[in-house]
Each structure stands twice: as structure tokens, then as C-alpha cells.
Amino acid sequence: MRAWILTSAALVAGALGLCGCGGQTSVDAASLVSVSPGGKAAADPGAAIVVDALRGRLTDVTVVSADGRHVPGTVAADGRSWRSSGPLGAGRQYTVRVSADDGEGGRGSTVQEFATRPAPKSLTAQLTPGDKAVYGVGEPITVALSQPVHDRAARQIVERGLTVNSTPSVRGGWYWVNDRMLHFRPQGYWPTHAGVSAAFDIQGRQVAGDVYGGAPSRISFRTGDRLLAVTDAGSDYMTVYRNGQVINTLAVTTGKPGFSTRNGIKVVLEQQAQVLMDSATVGIADGSSDAYRKDVYWDTRVTWSGEYVHAAPWSVASQGVANVSHGCTGMSTGNAHWFYDTFHRGDLVQVVNSLGGRMEPFGNGFGDWNLSWADWQKGSALGKVVDTAGTGAVNPAPVGFLRPAA
Question: Would you give the end-to-end CA distance of the chain in angstroms?
Fold first, then answer.
């Protein structure tokens, strides 16, 4: 027996005569069954649909929404009642079609329609990256929710409404950063030149209390080559890899004592050809020996707190020799221009052997890759690995320094 979803604000009841066969006669099925909810008033979307046979038995019940979604249901063993087993949506219209047998040789069918009340609060999601552009293999998918989602059961509903597809396919997972933000990353980085799409759709479904799913959203993007820059703060040299092959080695300087550069894997956030860098924005008072305010060129940003890879012509004599910066990775103007042209959003920058702390997983950029895969999986409300439904091999293990935390 099929079941459908319901539609429309008015109740319409009528008998549709069926031709008799084998002595059966056509009867007014509206007098044989009762359907709840019914009437002109909008129904509670949390209510179940119940169809009862007033006499005889039900022979078919279907319920469908205006957008063609079917509501499942179960008929009782005696055939005298049917009850929906799936949720209704808020602000939806539904049509119920019922056929019944009166037990005395008469059969008939009826159609009834109703609407559910709109949601008091809608939950929507803004997904990134969403401009169908090309990104590096380290770019996570982010989901910013319009309403906070606190409890685990509600978070599970949200996760079930999220889908990720890629070609080639990968194993990945969701991580709840906080009540309004989720990130998705593969276990071992996106494949190169992959097609990726993500969607969120729980439209009309109750999430928790008076919060229901709002309008769905969808994004898509592609990945490029695997670009990785590994800066060794101990040797003051950066090694640049493209798809696992060394393509350049650059003399650099990183943060001096008291301003040591963060260790760990970072993701390029944005790029600007020129940035006015002011030490006051990072807590260095004017008049201090460490104070600065200058235009800096060929800037590749890797943290929101102000860590860049950029041109530092004033420290060329120290590059490859000593760490003298305030936390950024500085290099010659020519090298910084090359780096700026080679790297793009989503590419990976890793720092090793620095005296600084470790890159934060969240809140200061994309430090997602600094969590081990085991710890990442703990951030999912469903506790399950997502297999993106693309074609091709599962993402291979990364090369060189490009490995998630153990």
C-alpha cells in the first residue's frame, strides 16, 4: 500500500463512483471513512494522519504533498485504520485519497485535502564555497545555520539533510564546530581535479520545538592541483610541492621569539596584492620597538588573526638565516610574487619546527587538518563516515608532509 503527503488549506470531500464488478455497487466513500486532520483550519505539522473505516475496511490510502513527496503509513491488521509513519512538513498542502469497501458489496473512493501551519522558525543553511570556482584540495565545506541547534537528536536531523558528492569519491565526515556551524572534510584531502557538490534539504521537517527546515541550498566547486608549501622554521627555507613533486625552494624568515609562527597545516583564505599592515591591530602599541605600519605586497593570508605569506624586502639579509618577523612568513618580493601567482584559496601551507604553538582547528581560519581522523569523527552527531557518491578510486593517502594529525 502506498502513502502520500498532504496539500491545501480547504477540506474537499466527494465521492468518485467506481463501476461495479461482480455485484459490487458504487457508494459514497465519504460516509465510509473519517480522515484526520480535516477541516479548513491549518493542521499541526507534528500531527499524524489517521484514516478510519466507519464500516467495512480500507482498500487503499495514499497521501501526497503538493510537491509530489509521499508520506509513508501503515494499515492495521484488520484493515479498518491507517496511520502515517513519516513526518509532515510545515506550511505544506496535502491530498489524501482513500478507497473503501463497506463489507456489503459496495465500494467507493474519496479525496480530502488540508494544509499544515507554517513554521514559527525556519532553519536554513549557507554553504561554502559556493561560486563553482576552482579551490585547493584543503578547502573544507562549511555550513552556517540560521538557527542554533543544540541537542544531539536535532543535530542528527540536520546531518541527515546534508549530502556531499564528489568525483572521484572520498571518505569524509561532518564536524560540529558549534551550535551554528559544521565543517566537512575528507579523511585525506580532496583528490586533484575533482568535482564536488553539497546540498542541504530538510524543508518543512521539524528539527526541534518550533524550528522547521526552511528553503534548501546547494553548492558546487572543483579542485585544482595539490599545492603544498612546507616552511621549516628551523632551517628558514620553504619547500613547495605540486602533486607531490618539488617545484621550488625559497629562503624565508618566520616569527622571532615572542612572535613565533604557528606550527601545523593551514589553508589559504584569501589573497591581496597590497595590504596596509598595522601592528596596533595585533596588540603592539605605537611607540614600541616592535611597532610597524607599512604597505606590504603580494599577501597570501592563512589565518584571520593576520598571519600571511608576503613580500618582506626589508629582511632579505635574514631570509634563509634567522627568524625576525612578527609571525608571518616573509620572503623576497620576487619570490612572494611567484608564491602569490602559484597558490590560491584552499591550497595548503604547513609550518614545522617553529617555537610557536599549534594552529587552532577552528576560529582562526581552516585548521581542520590538524585534528586526527579519529578525533574528527567524534564531531559528528551521527558518528558515521560519509562516502561521497562519486565514481572512481577513494582518495589516496597524501604525500610528503601533507598528512592529517596522527
Answer: 51
